[in-house]
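User: quick one
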Amino acid sequence: MGLFTSLNLAANSLEVIQQSIGVVQNNVTNASTPGYVQQTPTLIAAEFDPATGASGGVQFGPVQSSRDQFAEQAVRYQNALLGTATSAASSLNSLQQDFSVSGTSGIPSALSGLFSAFSAWATTPNDSTAQQQVIASAQQVAQEFNNAAGAVAQVASGTMQQLQSTVGQINALTAQIQQINVQIRKGDRGDAGLDAQLNNALESLSNLAGIDVHYQSDGTVTVLMGGQTPLVIGATQNQLNVTPFIPANPTNIDAPPTATITLADGTDVTNTVTQGQLAGLLTFNNVTLASVQGDSSQAGGLNQLAQAFADTVNGLVTPASGIPLFTMTGGPTNAAASLAVNPNMTTATLVASSATAINGTADALAQLGSPTYTDATLGSGYTDFYSGIASTIGQQESTASANQTAQQGLLTQAQNIRSQVSGISLDQAATQMIEFQSAYSASAQTVVTINNMLTALIQMTQNI
Amino acid sequence: MIKGIYANSEAFATGLDQIQNRIAVTNQQITSGIDVNQPSDNPNAIEPILAAQSEIARITQVQTNLNGVKTVASAADSALQAANSVINQLISIGAQGATATATQGTRTSLAQEAEELEQQLVSLANTTVQGNYIFGGDNPDTAPYSFDGTNPPTANVATPTNTGTVRDAEGNAIIPSLTAQQLFDSPAGSVLQAADAMRQALQNNQPANVDTALTDLKTAGTQLNLGAESYGAIENWLTNASTDASQRITSLQSQLSGLRDTDVVQAASQLTLDETAYQAAIQAQATLPTKNLFSYLG
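Assistant: Done. Structure below.
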């Protein structure tokens, strides 16, 4: 092997070391970049056999990514569960604010006020002040039911907007992933930056919807929601839509619709939304909210309460007064929102007497507030029924919040494991820099040495 | 949503956030004095809390009703005592008029006194409290009796009813009043008829009838006393019911307090613990090394 061969080898090693330093430097630069994982330069020794003339040397091999798909999948899984718990906790927290448990406001307070007014009226059945108080208290009850129904409707409206927004974010992320797939097919498969963008998008997507990610032989990814619904396949993206749903023959005609998730062709894929924020919002909208405000097949707790209470009161008032105390319009799912005091009811028309006693009606009405009273339709007293609704929402919120906290911990754990496997250690990068710097200095020194040897050789030749 | 790749930093920030939330909740509990401010604070306590509050409101109204009726019963008792006194005066007048030595002039004079006393009895039968005739039964707006000074007192409601009831906290009901007819015009002994008979006997100078009226008046007086005793029993019932209501309210308030009121000592201790944990976490984070090998490269 001649001096020129050695010089070429030294120069080549300088180039390889420069490339290696470039990889390390890129790691340091992207240490905080979401989705980026440590890249490791690989050096390949060239064939070296002086007997056959193989001169050896080093070649720059493919850059190795330290990405671990198991760790990534674990993070995405925990992130999806966190998304479910977070959206559920947030939505339930909004809803529970509409159910006062102070006892000094809201429906419970208004009901107590009306029962007290009935009780006072029963004692002084012909007192117009007591009658006026009954009408005023009844108006307060109606108002509180209207307010509660309005507040729940507002939460429902907000939830629908959140669903739209979440689906919009999912579509934006799947569009981004689809674009990355296109670039990968164009030959950017080994691009660490593109890989970082892809995985960051997948991680963000997993928080919104539970996804399965499958890597194809051409380097592209296929993203399935709930293991079934293809969101991205190669260069194809399937956009999601939020569609209000009312069945063909609903029991409650004026019920608020539930939400379904559909593909562009109208295919209903709601059943495949099992994790992520989207799942949390859907469950809240279609199960929790429906149990309170009703849907096509159920009246909803708030409406049940309003309807049962108004029916019972009217059942006692109408025989004596000739007209009902409360009125409602629309179907069962509109009971709470439309509850009102009959505008024709005045102190003159409100009659306390029953067939047997002058205060018979008023006394019977007063008994509705007794702790032993049970409404036949509801199977409990009115305040107890309200408590049941509030308690159920509170229980769900409490569970969702606890899940959120636990899930945050599990996600952190999964992220830590991923970080240990594929995160960037600045200490390690500094060591590599020193290592490559030393190698670069040594190779450079080799060049100088060979140069000196060649110079000496040339001088010797001149002297001949 | 993942904001960065430094999971430990994210976890630290989340942990701090959780401690801050706990501090905020504890602060709210101490400030409001109530542990359960929203359903999720203690879902299992919602039903008993609202039930207790509803029951307190109900019994408070029962107590208000009892107090209102008690005022009426007390006024009725006073009226009956006054009526009893009037009857005694009438008996005294009757006794004077029944003597053989009494002249027509004496009896005429006594008749005028009897008329005034009869008028007083009618007024007592028409006693009002806050504009309501307390012996009016189901017709509190109508005076039970009218008296013109000449004819016997006449009932303004032919067959008065009295169905107004009051209930105690347990739900037991009583009719807390008697009608003027029951008290002043009872078939077993009518005060008004006896008083009128006395007046007329004196006016007409009929000693024998005065004697009869005197006997009837004594019988009616006894009957009135029975009515007064009924009111005594009603007042006792009302007092007992009111005491029971007060005790129930106190018990319920204690129960409610146990269910939702903040244990301030425990809350303050929790607050101190959380604040210490918050400071410790920040200090621990601050002591973590922030340098790496690059910091030492020349």
